[in-house]
Amino acid sequence: MSKLRIATTSLAGCFGCHTSLLDIDERLFELLKQVEFDRSPLTDIKHCGPCDIGLIEGGICNAENVEVLREFRRNCKLLVAFGACAVTGGLPAQRNHLDLDACLTEVYLTEPGLANGGIPNDPELPLPLDKVHPLHEVVKVDYFLPGCPPSADAIWQFLSDLIAGRTPHLGHGLIQYD
Amino acid sequence: MNSFTLDGTAIPFAPGQTVLQAALEAGRYIPHLCYHPEFKPHGSCKLCTVQANGRPAAACTLPAQAGLVIVSDSEEINGLRRTLVQMLFAEGNHFCPSCEKSGNCLLQALGYDLGVVTAGFRHFFPDRPVDASHPDIWLDFNRCILCELCVRASCEVDGKCVFALSGRGIDKHLVVNSLSGRLADSAIGLDDKAVSVCPVGAILKKRVGFAVPIGQRRFDIAPISAQALADAPRPAAIGDGA
Amino acid sequence: MPSAVDLDTLLARHPRRPESLLQVLCDIQAVHNHIPADLAVQVAEALAIPLARVRGVIGFYSFLCSEPAGRFRLLFSDDITDRMAGSQALMSALCGRLWLEPGKVSEDGLVSVTTTSCIGMCDQGPALLANGWPITRLSPRRIDTIADLIRAEAPVADWPAEFFRVADHIRRRDRLLNSGPMVGAALAAGLARGPEGVIVQLERASLRGRGGAGFPTGRKWRACREAPGDARYVVGNADEGEPGTFKDRVLLTRHADLLFEGMTVCALAIGARQGFLYLRGEYRYLLEPLQAILAQRRAAGLLGAAIQGRAGFDFDIAIHLGAGAYICGEESALIESLEGKRGIPRNRPPFPVTHGYRQQPTVVDNVETFCAAALIALSGGDGYRAIGTEQSSGTKVLSVSGDCARPGIYEYPFGVTVRQVLTDCGATDSQAVQVGGPSGACIGADEFDRRLCFEDLASAGALVIFDGRRDLFEAAHNFTEFFARESCGFCTPCRVGTAMLQDIMAKIAAGHGTRHELDQIAQLARVLQQSAHCGLGHSACNPTLDMLKRFRPTFERRLKTLDFEPAFDLDGALARARAMTGRDDAGAHIRSEP
After folding, report:
1. Which of A36, A48, A30, A31 is nearest to A5 (CA)?
2. How many helices (H) and strands (E) does chain C have?
3. ipTM score of the complex?
4. B125 and A97 in contact by Cβ < 8 A?
5. Which CATH architecture has domain C172-385?
6. C233-247 confidence digits (pLDDT tens)
7. Full-model pTM
8. How far apart, in whole angstroms, are the C-alpha atoms of residue B103 and residue B147?
9. Domain tally, chain B
């Protein structure tokens, strides 16, 4: 059987979920017997090619996030919201009750630190959305793996199920939202 | 003794008991959230919905009757409960990683037990300011699921009526009984039942949130379905709550 | 129009007890255009209610508010028939003339304009409430005049009387609408028959409730009479909130004597000493005429002590005003509201016949039911039973509106076909009829031979007609907005589900819907039907499901062909950041996916 191709990325996230993925430790060797990585911080491949599984950490907070998410959706047969931020918006979404104008004004114009520097308008910088959203509000998401981050055991269980063609089932102790 | 069947098992009941009360007393779990054994059944969260003789009904308010055929643990009913939990998560701002209640939270524990992994629908992200005015008690409306347990406890047990509900529909919200509307100016006390009864992290005692570390908390140890029976009234107390 | 009155005067109008809370708040609102914070505190003290609960009641009823609503508060009826008659354009025009944003109060506190649920003027819309008083047959010209009157700060009482004319539009009469003035004849007959005799006649008549559910009236009265209790109550349900329904408005206008006679007969039958008429806030303009009729009846010995000279037969009726809450038409929510609380449907059992007002045995019946009961008390049940169908005896008063030449009130024997009604009201090219309002059923042209009766199309008798020009998606969208606006919020599925449904329908309306949204509608419908606390939640998805079943292409042609579309406008979500940074380059936009 040919190896499954997996792509991973972190959008509005902290890479904690990727770190937790590394925490599967020596099981990484077993994983690498069954899969190969496409675009991922682990490979440094810049763009996603056709894949079997896409793992996306983090929610959607700016225009670039939308672009990358769409690239994954176009190329991945199964798209997984990987971790609390991808599933719910998570920590970045805690800004959702704040007005974006007020945020930018406070950070760049009025408060000490970056004040008086002006709000950055370099076209290289992605513009922020007015709110942070979970993935499923922007594209169709096939599977969800909650947790901040999901534990290594949960990730291992989840990936083992997906690779084996089983509907992922976490059960007590592995399903967690915090 | 009269009995009804729950998923094929006979459940005895005393006159005046509801299906949920009788089931819990008999050691059988039916998921529930706004029901609390010390209070009159409320029937608002609808997590305890079952099929009773083929028709859906809330087990917490359904009077037990001889011969009733109750189906609770079916894929259809659990699917319904999953959607209800998803609705509650989408409605409020439930950010478990920062919540001191995590691991002891009934909403979270029900989500775990039912296998809820996403809110599924669009999150409402409502704007709900926190009331941190009280020196010892934290009131976070973002996490409130409107079960009214604090409303009931404060009136019926504490005799203070510190909480009430206002608004309607999706704008329904908890309000505090004080001139300013702030908790600090209310009659609430740290030992009030209204404080301890909150099933989620909306009402919390300050400065004790992490006394028990994450990972060693109630629902970290065993799922809610294995523990809720411990909360059920002992047979001697049956009948008082009905 | 009210003038400044001090709180003691307002409080003195009602018994000083918690049950009076809503009535006191309605009076304060009428005087001050809101409930000032200091008065809320004083009311809480005077009635011995926690302040938070007073605030909770203010927050529940849409006509009450804790911030000033404008000295002129205009509420456009947002029923689908009002919209079909152009209400939305008229509201925009008025707001334009007043330089006003809908839903906001003008900066000088002069005026606010927004929408409210159906005010029961569907046969003469578009309509609005101006400081609580209905104005019908709105036209661009009327809107211009209204704008001028507001800017001139002319009191609503001085506006042209013609604006406030409410027509009865009785188009077809049968037994009920043909009945003459009823001042004691049915009551005398009831006294002669005795309590048991009255109930037996109702049972012989097989009278069923006219609010839509069709519960046997005789069985209800008997159960109430036999229930143990310290007191018994009669409640007339005039909270006619189902959009498209206005027949009770006409009965209250033309046949109030018959209604009060029926309620008094009920008091005789069950042994009640106190009755209430729960009058929806939208019909506030009928309060004084109804009170005048009650006064006449007291003077004539038809209410009060020893009615018609019968020692011990003491009964009176008080009118209780609602304040803008559809859910209070549900009988147990109505009783909560009658007790001065938020109108939340109770857990049942127990039912009101054993545990109603103040936990005592209570009969709650529709206005039309009491009218029919009076006629049966007068003439006996057998003649009544001979009219109608096997399971639906007697006649039904229908409210007909929408696309037809002669909207109004039609009384038929039960069993009339929808087609017959359409012919009589001059409807042509009808593609669908919504029977029984948003919580009823939507039927297509192939079903017009169905009959209006409990065996087939059971309802409170509202028919809203849509001709071939109409887009039924618009109707479904309007109905989902109605349910979201009127959900009481008690139970999870209805509180959250109706808001989600509204969100999904708005997405489809904006052209961003996909099959995914249709699947979500089906999922929400299942959850609401299976687990909602009351009928509002059970039926909140019905119009959408009915229209999806019968008029699916009207939904599908609005869908994008994609399997999935974002839940929100991606490019629109960048607008704030574009404005803040002054950028408009390609990277500052998100294109829709092809």
Report:
1. A36
2. 23, 14
3. 0.95
4. yes
5. 3-Layer(aba) Sandwich (3.40)
6. 999 999 999 999 999
7. 0.95
8. 19
9. 2
